[in-house]
Specification:
CATH topology of the largest domain: Tetracycline Repressor, domain 2
Strand content: 5-15%
Shape: elongated
Strand order of the largest sheet: 1-2
CATH class of the largest domain: Mainly Alpha
CATH superfamily of the largest domain: Tetracycline Repressor, domain 2
Helix content: 55-70%
Radius of gyration: 20 Å
Structural class: mainly alpha
Number of domains: 2
Length: 252
């Protein structure tokens, strides 16, 4: 699931007037970017400075989740963290910067996970989907803010585009590998299939856990049952099963 390659030396590329860092570079350089500004100088973070930065990130997460992206001011984050505005700007350029830094943590977690392989069968598909759905449901309030931010601010939007490409291209690569091995039909376009399946999961989670959650809430396993069924059907791993219903697993 690779993003566009970073330019050697600075790990950045440009889209129009907006400087965009590819998601892999954002994760790889997250610690290097953890600098404190002192006038015109940029200083590495010591223990206390790192604690302050983490406190600002935690405060931003809570504040964004409560008041949304447009409803959150830098002063709100600083006040919640118990710091001054000047201290905030020692660590972050602004609201979009702290939002992108929060997302970088999720990116690092994604990079640390074992790679999914289609050869792992239904168990592998289910594990992949369960990780995504469970993480999304647990952070639903922040996911709504992230969605909002990417519609009103080009910096988070750029990060989201790169993250989406990173995730989708990884699935696409696995589909191509499966085609070469003969376990996925040659008549399937792996690019379109990967985009369709990953977009479906993302939109399903947004509708179900953020935008229009039903009552009663849909359990994570019930969501995964249905998504797994659709993926398995698309990838020729369904057999004679019928669609799951009532939250029961399709394999029961």
């Amino acid at each position: 699931m690779a993003t566009s390659p970073a330019r050697e030396g600075d790990g950045r590329r440009r889209r129009g007037r907006v400087e965009v860092r590819p998601v892999v570079a954002a994760a790889a350089h997250a610690e290097a970017d953890g600098l404190r500004r002192d006038g015109d100088r940029k200083l590495p973070l010591g223990r206390k400075a790192r604690e302050t930065r983490n406190r600002l990130l935690q405060a931003a997460y809570v504040q964004f989740s409560q008041t949304g992206y447009r409803g959150t001011k830098v002063g709100d984050i600083s006040a919640r963290a118990g710091t001054s505005l000047g201290t905030f700007y020692q660590y972050f350029h602004g609201r979009a910067d702290v939002m992108s830094s929060l997302v970088a943590g999720a990116i690092r977690a994604t990079l640390d996970r074992p790679h999914w392989r289609l050869s792992q069968g239904r168990e592998g598909i289910r594990r992949l989907l369960h990780q995504y759905v469970a993480s999304y449901e647990a952070t639903a309030a922040f996911q709504g803010v992230w969605e909002e931010a990417t519609h009103v601010d080009e910096v988070p939007a750029s990060v989201r585009r790169d993250l989406g490409r990173f995730l989708t291209e990884g699935v696409e690569r696995e589909f191509r590998r499966a085609q070469r091995a003969g376990s996925l039909g040659r008549d399937v376009d792996p690019t379109t299939l990967a985009r369709a399946l990953t977009a479906m999961v993302d939109r399903y989670c947004y509708l179900t856990y953020v935008f229009d959650p039903p009552s009663p809430a849909v359990p994570i396993d019930a969501s995964v049952d249905t998504l797994e069924f659709i993926w398995a059907a698309s990838l020729g791993q369904l057999g004679s099963e019928t669609p799951p219903s009532g939250g029961r697993s399709a394999t029961e």
